[in-house]
Design a protein that fits this description.
The complex is a heterotrimer. Helix content of chain B is 66%, strand content 1%. Chain B is mostly helical. Chain C is built from seven helices and no strands. Classes of the chains: A mainly alpha, B mainly alpha, C mainly alpha. At the A-C interface, helix 11 of A face helix 4 and helix 5 of C.
């Protein structure tokens, strides 16, 4: 909740800038930032889902994880207590954003040289009330709709598509959760999948299938290394200026056109 | 003090009844239209209501690997969406304005998705792909709404969508493009056809259905109902955008507006059905191409918003 | 700002041109091209209405019949005959190039604010914005696509951009020249279609990026 509050403030900043009395380029940039922030927000949502889901939910993925216990040597209560205190602090700040902002107001006044900044008016969303209403709704639905009939709840294995009980290996794992994202951004992340099937009649009755995925962030490997070899490339590319490819040729025409337009209009 | 009169109470009651009862009817319309397209008579329009009632009375089966998160997800989602229905401007007749902040609406939507995925992971099933889609659609939705908000100079959607905002009155282009962008985005967000086949029975091709495979009985009823509510809200927002593009609706009475907004939601539902009958599910790698159209629409919206506030 | 009707139509045609960039499916490309040209014909007709230059009506009809029906129909039949449904591959992914096209629209808006104005009546900055963005879109289309059909469509889009610029800024050229241009475009597309058959026959593909092999 406090995370949402701070994010909301960042969004608001850019959003207010987009119709403020500013140069058009700045306003365009601010709206673009809103879009980028939305994308980052969605990515972080996926990341949190992955972290929570993989770490805490479902069945243990390995034997070691199945036997995992709270550490006994360093006092388990202290470990848990620390987390609980942090969680309570989060909820406290989240439900009382205006008060927290009031605390920050002197710093804001100092930064903006604006004496009339009032922290509590910056964040108009009644998060505490919303959370309360939500909590009441959830519990009432839970009690009246689901809780009334907990007697005839049967328990059974997870749906297995009719193949027989699923092993833990069939579960969603960290890399499989992020796999589709990697696939879609394969141009940036360089996702590589190698599949190895062994056995006699390999197509239909494989004895073992081995799939490995590699993800190489292109920005790290492909952006910094070329700078090292930039001069190499420069000398080589001078030779390749005219290869006879129609696309290269068109690119020259296009770039020259752009250059001329820019020279002519001195933007 | 708020003056309490019978008219306000009646309006509120009508509003609550609409958003509680309309969603299954929408799904009925979609299914009926699809059936007619496939030359079938199809189930009656009210079938989704019967389905929900039947599900409520069934005995429940849950996986033994689940924890409390799985059990409470459905309840959380329904209540989140009910709050959203109070906040978001999905119909033009709203008895009260609680202040629907743009980013709040979008983050509440994201929160429902978070819980749906968590419950799927909780049961230890092998499917959890919906997040990727949401990831790609999110910028488009936010940019469309932010462009509208930027023109009206407020981030409160309730104010931006009320028909008395002077700065938005002569902007049919903006409204129309935003409506198209939001409609395309909500097709993906609601897991309808080009992104996902809602009627598939093959687990490998499921996106949304795979998430709710484990739910049954009352739990499933709640999950289905929250999905229906989501359809109502998202289609409602995009249909509101399209309605604002037509100058006629700026000068009519409240009653016509209310009827028009409900009617336009139904028309959008029918057009979803038509799209689903004509189009095929896209391959996963082809999907960004489809979503890109919605993002492009949102970029056009941003341009219009920028040029509007020029000098 | 409030748009004139013809400016709004010009913007619509620019948006359709950008939507061409979004998919590699050739038939969809052609139908978007057809819509785009229809919008241009409508712009021409509307300008004729404003300025009372009757020959522009004829030009609009010509554009409508030849460019937005004839050429797409002909190219569609070519596609059917050489049996190629989608562009083999783009150098930049299609969604990305569409967003690039949208950015180009913003860029051309800034450029058109800067160019020395042609004082015509109506003086239209947005008209030149749309024309320039169509020009850029066509160039992007030719730059990023591999199939020869896409190159033809890109060429046609560029031609449309130039035409739109002329129409919105100077209200078009004399009727004879306009008609000659239309005929020339038609002939060019016909010849390009015939060339396509030949390329397909001798190389088994229409990938222009592999035409560099002609060297040896």
């Amino acid at each position: 909740m406090n995370c949402f509050a701070s994010k909301w403030l960042v969004y608001q900043t850019f959003f207010q800038l987009s119709f403020a009395n500013a140069p058009i380029l700045e306003r365009a940039m601010s709206l673009a930032m809103v879009g980028i922030l939305a994308f980052v927000g969605a990515l972080s949502l996926a990341c949190f889902t992955k972290a929570v889901g993989i770490a805490f939910l479902g069945r243990p993925r390995s034997n070691a994880a199945a036997k995992a216990k709270e550490s006994t040597t360093s006092g388990p209560d202290g470990l848990i207590l620390a987390q609980v205190i942090l969680a309570i602090a989060c909820v406290m700040i989240g439900t009382s954003v205006p008060i927290a902002l009031d605390g920050l107001a002197p710093a804001l006044r100092h930064l903006t040289h604006d004496q009339f900044v009032i922290g509590s008016t910056l964040f108009p969303i009644p998060q505490g009330q919303l959370a309360l209403v939500g909590g009441i709704l959830v519990s009432s639905i839970y009690l009246f709709v689901l809780g009334g009939r907990s007697g005839d709840v049967k328990s059974y294995i997870t749906w297995d598509c009719g193949f027989g009980p699923l092993s833990t290996r069939a579960e969603e794992t960290g890399s499989s959760f992020s796999h589709p994202i990697g696939r879609i951004f394969s141009q940036i992340l360089q996702l590589k999948v190698t599949t190895e099937i062994s056995g006699k009649d390999r197509r239909h009755f494989p004895e073992s299938v081995r799939v490995e995925t590699f993800m190489t962030p292109i920005l790290e490997t492909k952006l910094y290394r070329p700078i090292m070899g930039l001069f190499d490339w420069l000398s080589a590319s001078l030779v390749r200026l005219q290869t006879g490819s129609i696309h290269i040729h068109l690119l020259y025409v296009f770039l020259t056109m752009l250059l001329l337009v820019f020279l002519g209009t001195n933007i | 003090m708020i003056a309490i009169n019978t008219e306000a109470i009646l309006e509120t009651l009508a509003f609550v009844a609409t958003f509680l009862l309309l969603p299954p009817l929408l799904v009925g319309i979609i299914r009926k239209t699809k059936a007619r397209f496939q030359n079938r008579i199809g189930a009656p329009l009210l079938q989704p209501y019967f389905d929900l009632m039947k599900l409520m009375s069934k005995g429940e089966t849950i996986s033994k690997h689940t924890s409390w998160i799985f059990r409470s997800t459905a309840a959380i989602n329904v209540s989140l969406l009910i709050i959203l229905a109070f906040l978001a401007p999905w119909t033009s007749l709203r008895p009260f304005n609680l202040g629907a902040d743009l980013f709040l609406v979008i983050y509440l939507l994201a929160l429902t998705r978070f819980f749906t995925v968590l419950s799927a992971l909780d049961a230890g099933s092998a499917f959890g792909r919906e997040v990727t889609l949401a990831l790609l659609v999110e910028p488009a939705v936010i940019l469309c709404l932010a462009a509208i908000g930027s023109v009206s100079q407020t981030s409160d959607l309730g104010v931006a969508f009320s028909f008395n905002n002077v700065s938005l009155i002569n902007q049919p282009g903006l409204w129309f493009i935003a409506g198209c962008g939001l409609f395309l985005a909500s097709l993906v967000e609601l897991s309808r056809m080009p992104a996902d086949d809602p009627t598939t029975h093959l687990e490998l091709t499921m996106v949304h259905e795979a998430m709710i495979l484990e739910n049954s009985a009352a739990n499933l009823a709640l999950v289905e109902y929250s999905h229906f509510l989501k359809i109502l809200i998202l289609l409602g927002i995009s249909s509101q955008c399209l309605l604002h593009a037509i100058p006629f609706f700026w000068h009519t009475s409240q009653l016509i507006l209310a009827l028009a907004s409900i009617l336009s939601i139904m028309i959008l539902a029918a057009s979803i059905a038509i799209i689903e009958s004509v189009a095929v599910k896209l391959r996963w790698t082809k999907l960004p191409e489809f979503i890109a159209y919605s993002v492009a629409m949102s970029i056009f919206c941003v341009f219009i918003a920028l040029s509007k506030n020029l000098n | 700002m409030i748009l004139d009707t013809f400016e709004a139509l010009a913007m619509v045609s620019a948006i359709f041109a950008i939507l061409i960039l979004g998919t590699t499916h050739l038939r969809t490309n052609l139908s978007f091209y057809s819509l785009h040209t229809m919008a241009i014909a409508a712009v021409t007709a509307w300008i004729a209405n404003i300025t009372h230059e009757d020959h522009l009506y004829l030009v609009a009809a010509g554009v409508f019949i030849i460019k937005s029906w004839g050429i797409p129909w002909y190219l569609n039949s070519v596609i059917k005959k050489i049996n190629i449904g989608t562009d083999g591959g783009a150098f930049i992914a299609a969604p990305l190039s569409m967003h690039l096209g949208a950015l180009m629209l913003g860029l051309s808006f800034m450029i058109s604010q800067q160019i020395p104005g042609l004082i015509g009546e109506p003086d239209s900055r947005l008209g030149s914005t749309a024309a320039m963005s169509i020009l850029f879109t066509g160039v992007l289309l030719m730059l990023t696509r591999r199939a020869a059909i896409s190159q033809i469509v890109g060429f046609l889009v560029i031609e449309n951009g130039i035409y739109l610029f002329a129409v919105t800024q100077t209200h078009g050229m004399p009727l004879m020249i306009e008609m000659g241009l239309l005929l020339e475009v038609l002939v060019a597309v016909m010849v390009a279609g015939l060339l396509l058959f030949n390329i397909k026959k001798s190389f088994e593909h229409i990938d222009v990026s592999q035409l560099t092999e002609l060297k040896d």
